[in-house]
Amino acid sequence: MEQLRRLYNTHVKLLAFDLLSLTQTPSHSPSDPISFSRRGTFFFRAETVGTITSRELKPNKFLKFTVDDGTGCIVCVLWLNHLVSPYFSRCSPPSVRLIAQMASRFAAEVRLGVVARVRGRITSYRGAVQITVSDVVVERDPNVETLHWLECMSLASKCYDVRPS
Amino acid sequence: MESSAIKSGALVSLQDLHQSSPFFKQGASLRVTGKLQEFSVETAIAIVVDGNAKLKINTQHLRDLSFQVGSIYQFIGELLIQPDDEAILQARVGRNVDGIDLNLYHQSLQLLRQFQADHLSTT
Fold first, then answer.
1. What range(s) does the OB domain occupy (chain A) (predicted)?
2. Which helix (H) or strand (E) holds B119?
């Protein structure tokens, strides 16, 4: 079980075409975290870097946007409903306000044409893989995308596609 | 597999966009990078170059982007091939990428294409 979850806390760097081809693994119990697999490796969280090519805001509900890294478009969902969500009603109000403020700040950063580094949990909606966003950083260095591609390719061959012995 | 209605801009160099290229297709979604050679405020048409290759870019839908001749820009958009076979990219997003290492960029593009081809052939 430990080997299956070795990447549980890692935001794996995957190219969009790779991420979008992941298969959701059936969970054996409701308490199992949602995971996706490829070639026997299980992924839970991901990081992508690319150009924001669409943006759809539902105020106080969510921001849905797409990240195009040149190999595909990843749909990303940033929830903005923390203050009214029953899920967060169990948390302390100051913490919820802080989370809501951070999400609001991230949403303001997401603009068409900017390059952003987006991290979050890998989820799916209507059969399509997407990222439920935990943080967004706008990248201004024009070489960042090139570096991301190289990192994704290197990690795929040296880490993600390597079966643990 | 695309998971949204927004199409990904395929990474191409300007040299890739000749008439016999598989990328030279009506409506193809592309991402191009080049140095700004000319820009017309009246028509919003920019011409970008990379080595001997050049491409016209229709920038009318772009906002918050200033154009400086000599700077390097990157655009994502759809290719419109006119009746005289001249192509123009209808850009939907664009940005100034001054400081980009173009040698590394082009080399990485080749690696990326090989990586994608290898992965698609093994799945």
1. 49-137
2. helix B102-122
